[in-house]
Design a protein that fits this description.
Potassium Channel Kv1.1, Chain A, four-stranded mixed beta sheet, 14 helices
Length: 356
């Protein structure tokens, strides 16, 4: 099946595309002596897919060569593609090819969703469609570096993809994002083994990421041997264990069963107040990253779970306060947590339990 890529209905759009690409044009109506390329028939046959799904499209060779360095080389050489003006992409299904062309061809260009950008990036990279690759790079970069920390699995996957497909901005932004995350004990304690398995290769390769975790990694004869560790198939497990061990060394408690799900999780001991430990974790509340804290009030009568108040000080008048439990003990009580209903409390039943 042959599909004409520039039929009469899209002629004006293709004229705009030639102008955008810098292809020189003369008058709107050609004469036999001054016929321009925009009035000529498409001269490049592009076949995609294989077997029953194979489909053939027609394009102007000069435009495709401008879009793709890969195609430019094929058409400029003595290869058969340059002689016959026929190129085949058997590994790209027609539906994928049409998606590729949608972001390269004339007309309005919508910004793709990050999932589509991740899917198309490999084709833009493999066949050197630089404009498409830069578009995907921008979308994926913005996704990785966004403040949302509930998508760490998707972000680590996108960061790994960036390194495999020449997404320079995404790789640079991702390195900065994950280095900051790995340097923060509270934030890195949220990484799952699956997250770390995805991040392990760039951690081994990137000095900035390695420096963020080197201090907590196991030593061999008193030293952290980078070359040995990163070659071990169990390196992700070792790093995950090191992060979990760090949380235990600092001291941690687990909050479970709270009606406000964002409150649940592992709280790592990060400081003391009057000799009483304070615990904290990072999480999302109302669409923003917050530090959730578990602490005893200065009067020594009640434990609270809230977010940090303005200025970064734990307070029973915090920005958001969820639960409280009466106790004068120096360690958070396991039971007796109730919804805080005064001073703007925003907790939801049931109250949690605390283990650790």
């Amino acid at each position: 099946m042959i599909v004409m890529a520039c039929d009469a209905s899209s002629k004006s759009l293709w004229r705009e595309e030639y102008t955008r690409l810098g292809v020189t044009m003369a008058s709107d109506e050609p004469s036999p002596a001054t016929k321009k390329i925009r009035f000529s028939e498409p001269d490049l046959e592009v076949a995609v897919g294989s077997g029953e799904t194979r489909k053939v499209y027609m394009y102007h060779a000069v435009v495709m060569a401008i879009w793709s360095n890969y195609i430019d080389r094929m058409l400029s050489s003595d290869m058969k593609e340059g002689q016959t003006k026929k190129i085949t992409f058997p590994d790209i299904e027609p539906s994928e090819w049409e998606a590729i062309m949608m972001y390269l061809g004339p007309g309005k260009r919508e910004t793709p969703h990050v999932d589509e950008a991740k899917r198309l990036a490999k084709w833009f990279d493999k066949y050197e469609f630089q404009t498409g690759l830069e578009m995907c790079d921008g979308v994926i970069h913005d996704f990785i570096t966004s403040e949302d920390v509930d998508n760490l699995d998707a972000k680590s996957s996108a960061y790994s993809l960036a390194g495999n497909h020449n997404l320079v901005r995404s790789q640079q932004g991702g390195t900065t994002f994950f280095a900051e995350l790995l340097r923060d004990p509270l934030r890195r304690s949220r990484l799952t083994l699956a997250d770390i398995s995805t991040l392990a290769p760039p951690i081994g390769q990137m000095d900035e990421l390695w420096a963020a975790v080197e201090a907590i990694l196991p030593t061999i004869e008193g030293q952290v041997n980078r070359e040995v560790l990163v070659q071990e198939t169990c390196f992700p497990i070792l790093l995950h264990q090191a992060i979990q061990k760090e949380a235990l060394v600092h001291g941690s408690v687990t909050v479970k069963g709270a009606g406000v799900s964002a409150v649940n999780g592992i709280y790592v001991r990060d400081s003391t107040r009057g000799g009483v430990p304070k615990f904290a974790k990072k999480g999302i509340w109302n669409g923003s990253e917050e530090t959730f804290v578990l602490f005893r009030n200065p009067a020594g009568t009640t434990w609270f779970i809230s977010t940090l108040a303005p200025g970064g000080v734990p307070s029973n008048r915090a920005a958001y306060s969820f639960y409280c439990a009466p106790s004068a003990e120096n360690y958070p009580p396991g039971q007796g947590w109730v919804v805080r209903v005064w001073c703007g409390g925003v907790g939801v039943a049931p109250g949690p339990t605390v283990e650790g």
